[in-house]
Q: What sequence folds into this?
């Protein structure tokens, strides 16, 4: 039977202290590895006869502006369909050189997910066959999901904060 403990043990045996941050939330294990190992870890999870994580159900990024040198996380959600076990794998990169190896050679489903992640977060998936914007216009010179812009214009005077649940008494 495939358990989070057995998955962690196999990963630690293979990659040693390069795989870290093992946590469990709602039964799903999460861990991280250096970005240069993302394909080796994904290939191991795919090929190992006991692990069999052969379905990439999701791939996205998260922007952590306060984590200097680790501002962008690429998050892979993998699924072992035989044992019905899910797994979350993260790699971090700095925002100045957001290069992460593309997983499209291993998972065809990574193609459009990597394009969307590039489009909104600016992660450069090295080796992607057609890395270009997928939802935003090509002329856009920024990445809208990064936390680099204020959520609203603080100088506006035409809004009543009470209508937005701020200020006033309830």
A:
């Amino acid at each position: 039977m495939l358990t989070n403990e057995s998955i962690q043990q196999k990963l630690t045996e293979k990659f040693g202290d390069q795989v870290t941050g093992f946590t469990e939330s709602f039964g799903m294990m999460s861990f991280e590895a250096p970005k240069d190992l993302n394909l080796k870890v994904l290939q191991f999870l795919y090929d190992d006869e006991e692990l069999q994580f052969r379905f990439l159900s999701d791939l996205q990024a998260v922007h952590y502006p306060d984590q200097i040198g680790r501002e962008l996380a690429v998050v892979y959600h993998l699924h072992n369909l035989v044992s019905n076990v899910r797994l979350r794998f993260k790699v971090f990169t700095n925002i100045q050189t957001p290069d992460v190896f593309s997983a499209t050679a291993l998972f065809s489903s990574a193609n459009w997910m990597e394009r969307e992640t590039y489009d909104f977060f600016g992660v450069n998936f090295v080796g992607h066959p057609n890395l270009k914007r997928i939802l935003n216009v090509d002329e856009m010179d920024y990445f809208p999901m990064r936390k680099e812009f204020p959520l609203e214009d603080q100088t506006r005077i035409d809004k009543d904060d009470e209508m937005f649940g701020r200020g006033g008494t309830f």
About this structure: The longest strand covers residues 55-63.
